[in-house]
Amino acid sequence: MAEKGRVCVTGAGGFLGSWVVKFLLSRGYEVHGTVRDPGHEKNAHLKKLEHAALNLHLFKADLLDYDSLCAAIAGCKGVFHVASPVPLGTVSNPEVELIEPAASGTHNVLKACSKEKVHKVVVVSSISAVYKNPNWPKNQVMDEMCWSDKEYCKEIKNFYCLSKTLAESQALEYAKQNGLNIVTVCPGLVLGPILQPTINFSSLVLINLLKEGFESLENKICIIVDVRDVAEALLLAYEKPEAEGRYICLAYTIRTKDLIEKLRIMYPDYNYPKNFEEIMAEETYSSEKLQKLGWKYRPLEETLSDSVRSYQEAGILDKH
Ligand SMILES: NC(=O)c1ccc[n+]([C@@H]2O[C@H](COP(=O)([O-])OP(=O)(O)OC[C@H]3O[C@@H](n4cnc5c(N)ncnc54)[C@H](OP(=O)(O)O)[C@@H]3O)[C@@H](O)[C@H]2O)c1
């Protein structure tokens, strides 16, 4: 067995999952990665990661199939629960496509962890489980005490936020009820280089800003964090015995217009949004708890340039 022991990563082939697998392998862990379709071309990159030949084992598992999760988690002392649906567009049946796999899926993972006597579980939540809260005091920084309001998420039909809020709150409740060691991490919009050959939602957000030439966009606050820094945060949450509860994980809050200006300086020739509609947006967020655990993040320019280079190399974005 690899020197650091055996851990499982759900959603191993996705954008964030691939980086988590890569970092774990490079740190000497043996990894059980769950994917829904091990033979599919979209997961082929995993086998090419350094140390994968010896230390990566892929398991076919669906979040709604408890037995498949037990088989993947058996023998692991830690689990990184990354898998959750992140649709590229609107979904026609949110209950089936989002809520069930996120909430019941997380419950299945945790039940499998209890059965297999896992020591620690790190659950990937989202800033979406934090910030949709109309009752949070206007001038108060949003920290780990702030939860998205489930009724409000339903009212505004933001079912992704609802799915992540349900999954995370139920995970922390499960920890209390069953004495399982669970830590949750809530990243902002995750950007950075892609390892997988397909486009995921958050990368598409940046790609669209670079090439769609939108007539007008709301000048919203973007809450950005690098995928490599999120993967580091997950490892930190796993490896530090003192880690507990939830951790907000974000590096930069920047208005869309300012982000575009930054990109325009770096890459003058893409087809950027033309106008911005000013909106009230004053929320502020804090990753102080995670930073106190030892977390650091890289400069935004590095995230942007490595993202753009990887899209170009994958043939998703023209070179300019
Ligand atoms: N990207 C962001 O900006 C962001 C921000 C905050 C939090 N997050 C969270 O980070 C995690 C990873 O997201 P990502 O950005 O890496 O997106 P992604 O590339 O779309 O990855 C999602 C992963 O979930 C898996 N999955 C979805 N439904 C599943 C099911 N029913 N059974 C088994 N696996 C299932 C997918 O597997 P298949 O390949 O088989 O579809 C895929 O591996 C998610 O929990 C997401 O909510 C992401």
Automatic annotation (TrEMBL):
Alphabetically ordered keywords of this record: Oxidoreductase
InterPro entries: Epimerase_deHydtase, NAD(P)-bd_dom_sf, NAD(P)_dehydrat-like
Domain of life: Eukaryota
GO MF term list: oxidoreductase activity
Pfam assignment, any one: Epimerase
UniProt keyword Transmembrane, yes or no: no
Domain NAD-dependent epimerase/dehydratase: 7-244
Protein name: NAD-dependent epimerase/dehydratase domain-containing protein
